[in-house]
Amino acid sequence: MAVKKELIAQGAESRLYHYRDRVIKERVRKSYRIKQIDIKLRKQRTKAEARNLKKAAKLIKVPKVIDVKKFRIIMEYVDGEVLRDVISTTSREVIKQVGEYVALLHSRDIIHGDLTTSNMILGDELFFIDFGLSEIKNSIEAKAVDLHVLKQALKSKHHKYYRNAWRIIKKAYLESYKEGEGVLKRLRRVEARGRYKNRG
Question: Which pTM value belongs to this model?
Answer without folding.
Answer: 0.92
